Amino acid sequence: MKTAVVTGASRGIGRAIALRLAEAGNAVVVHYATRAAAAEAVCAEITAAGGKALAFGADLGDPAAVAGFWPTLEPLMEASFGSKRLDMLVNNAGTGGGLTIEQADPATLDHVLQVNLKAPFFLIQGAITRISDGGRIVNLSSMGVRNPYPVMAAYAPSKAALETLTLMLANQLGPRGITVNAVRPGATATEMNHRATDPVLSKAIAETVALRRVGQPDDIAGIVAFLCSEAGGWVTGQMLDASGGQRL
Asked: What secondary structure does DSSP assign to 57-105, as a single string?
């Protein structure tokens, strides 16, 4: 059995990814920042279906927690799964900020960069010596890199940098058969995106989408699951739009 670590997996897109990877037969580490009960509920759903899952809490906004992520997690993986094996890392956890450049302050920018860029950077740094040859790394980016709104002043640059990291790592890790890709969700109906869940606003957004609806977490999870599968093994260094054709 292969093992996947999914950050920010207690809700939304991360939850859907964790469930989909578990459905494919992988043991899944369901990472969370503060929502322990929600993460445990995801694990319960996985185990009820016959899978294996482990809830693991770490605040990715805290550099010390990021530094201790793998040393703390590995003994728990061994206890729960019988192995420290790592095959897939999905960097899904993120924060938006929701500020224009005029509104942004140094503390906000530092926090967004910490969660969206520095945490994945150092999690991958620690994973390089741990992940199996033929492994998978998927970074969740955003359509905002391609079509940013003014309120993405901190968010979009952090995701753009994550995409550059993705491209560099795909080349570096390719000789080991490890693929590294980024997925760019568009407007997706999650707790963090109130516009996409609002009955009125979501209809307006749908008019900007070629498929005429907003995305659902499962839409994104299916793409991530493909990239993590054997079938996705010939795709690397790619930034995949997962927006239904939003703002084409």
From this structure: E--TTSHHHHHTHHHHHHHHHHHHHS---EEEEEE-------B-TTT--
Instruction: Go through the domains of the chain in sequence order and give each one's CATH number.
Output: 3-242 (3.40.50.720)
What tens digit of pLDDT does each residue of 93-114 get?
999 878 999 999 999 999 999 9
CA angle 34, 40, 43 (to 5 degrees): 130
Q: Residues 56, 69, 70, 155: which is the catalytic one?
A: 155
What distances in angstroms separate CA 104 from CA 31, 59, 101, 154, one per listed residue? 28, 22, 5, 7
Q: Which two tokens stand for residue 80?
A: 């729960």
- Residue 155 annotated as catalytic: yes
How far apart (Å, rounded) are the C-alpha atoms in residues 73 and 30?
A: 11
What is the tens place of the pLDDT at every residue in 136-180?
A: 999 999 998 998 989 999 999 999 999 999 999 999 999 999 999
Report which of 216, 207, 220, 219 is spatially closest to residue 246, judged by C-alpha positions: 207
